[in-house]
Amino acid sequence: MVIRKNKSGYKVYKTKSGEIKSVHQRVAEKKIGGPVRKGYEVHHRDGNKINNRPGNLSVIKRSTHKTIHAKKKK
Questions:
Q1: What is the pTM of this model?
Q2: Number of structural domains, the chain?
Q3: Strand partners, 22
Q4: I need a labelling partner for 53 at 20 to 30 A (CA). Which of 21, 24, 44, 72 fits?
Q5: Measured between alpha carbons, how far is 31 from 34 in angstroms, rounded to an integer?
Q6: What distance in Å separates the CA atoms of residue 46 and residue 42, rounded to the nearest whole number?
């Protein structure tokens, strides 16, 4: 498996079917034991897009995620 960074700075990989997937999404799905539900996103707690350790990732509501990042921009 080849891992590279996408334009946004996230690590991604290509599946056997040719689909591009985010590493942090896959790690979070392994951690929670299934897919991330609709309306939820994976958040990097330390803000480092390439730190995909399970302990650094949390699955939170999209609205909460947007609020967290809006506060960081101020």
A1: 0.88
A2: 1
A3: 12
A4: 72
A5: 8
A6: 12
Both tokens of residue 69?
């990042």
pLDDT tens for the chain, 74 residues long, are 889 999 999 999 999 999 999 999 999 999 999 999 999 999 999 999 999 999 999 999 999 999 998 987 76
Q: What is the CATH number of the domain that holds 34?
A: 3.90.75.20
Range of the domain at 25: 3-73
Contact in structure between 43 and 16 (CB atoms under 8 Å): no
Total residue count of the chain as it appears in this document = 74
Gap between the Cα atoms of 18 and 50, Å rounded: 22
- CA of residue 56 relative to chain centroid, distance: 10
